[in-house]
Design goal:
Number of helices: 6
Distance between the termini: 46 Å
Largest sheet: 9 strands, antiparallel
Strand order of the largest sheet: 1-2-3-4-11-10-7-6-5
């Protein structure tokens, strides 16, 4: 269940008054009837009102869904105009594997998006965090505008894990600290990298104390690896590794400290043939993507993922949402 405060605060509207050049530095504003010194730029509060952020979110989600549904010659351009970061990466992976992008926002049935947070102040880049619900599926959407010349683009959409919750980010009109890129998220990325090691296969002997793997996505990864290893049996050896891409990272400050981090990752599943195995067989979609039906040495599946992670000020970091797309299959 998503939690947030409902406190509301009026936003100041700033108007600039232009004076003739001869009066600009004379400090006469307070002495002239009907003329006042131009107010300083407002740097606290949200960069836009929650209602404006909701309208922007609805427009971007609809545009993103339409762009992801295009298949003609203009499809790549349409995606580039409305997608950025992990959403763009996953869309490209879906095109390669002829699948549906896991980061595709489904706006055909959900109600209007609910804005959870808007970046504070007048600085750039700016960001909006929103959520939609469709039946039992709760989604988180992160939108980013790089600079004053750029429109908002969809950075990612992730499905929330069953039973997961996001701590309060404060009232949207108050604004929240937003951070984009690797340098701005070094502290939170450390937790993401620790989680990546915790869901590796073979399993680490001990799960690090700083992260939890009890969420639905992490449990599914571990169960999937166990099942795949059983299927491979004595024919080969399964290994799994996940690499966090800190360059595609964005986060919001939580009201009580900590952050919610959205970051792209690459997961690699490798089955290596044993010395007595003459052939590893491929079938179905995997064979089509690899353009091979067998391998004599190994088969490598590469997935692009986006994970949403709550990194609290104290306590264990945990995954609250994720999206995943198969990117390629290579058989050698």
């Amino acid at each position: 269940m998503l939690q947030q405060t409902t406190r509301r605060r009026a936003l100041a509207v700033v108007a600039a008054l232009s004076l003739p050049l001869g009066l600009g530095a004379c400090e006469l504003g307070s002495d002239l009837a009907g003329v006042h010194d131009a107010p300083a730029e407002v740097t606290d509060g949200a960069a836009m009102t929650p209602s404006a952020a909701q309208k922007v979110t609805s427009r971007v989600l609809e545009s993103a869904q339409a762009a992801l549904g295009e298949t003609g010659s203009g499809a790549a351009k349409a995606r580039a105009e409305v997608l950025t970061g992990p959403a763009k990466t996953q869309a490209a992976a879906a095109v390669k594997t002829n699948s549906t992008p896991a980061s595709a926002p489904d706006v055909t049935r959900p109600a209007e998006p609910e804005v959870l947070a808007v970046s504070e102040g007048a600085q750039w880049p700016r960001a909006i965090l929103a959520t939609t619900r469709d039946g039992d599926v709760q989604r988180l959407h992160l939108l980013v505008a790089e600079d004053s010349k750029s429109a908002f683009s969809l950075f990612t959409t992730v499905d929330m894990a069953s039973g997961a919750s996001v701590p309060s980010l404060g009232a949207p009109e108050d604004g929240a600290g937003a951070h984009l890129g690797e340098k701005a998220n070094n502290d939170a990325l450390a937790a993401a990298n620790t989680w990546a090691k915790a869901v590796a296969y073979p399993k680490p002997k001990k799960t690090p104390d700083s992260v939890s793997v009890n969420d639905g996505f992490s449990r599914a990864l571990r169960a999937n690896a166990d099942e795949a290893a059983k299927e491979v049996g004595k024919l080969g050896k399964l290994t799994r590794s996940t690499t966090i891409d800190g360059k595609q990272a964005a986060s919001f400050d939580l009201a009580d400290g900590g952050r919610i981090l959205f970051v792209s990752a690459t997961r690699t599943d490798t089955v290596t043939a044993t010395k007595d195995t003459k052939k590893l067989s491929l079938s179905g979609d995997a064979a089509k993507i690899a353009n091979k039906k067998s391998a004599s040495k190994k088969i490598v599946w590469t997935y692009v993922e986006t994970v949403a992670m709550v990194v609290p000020e104290t306590g264990k970091a945990r995954i609250v949402g994720a999206a995943e797309n198969l990117q390629k299959v290579v058989a050698t």
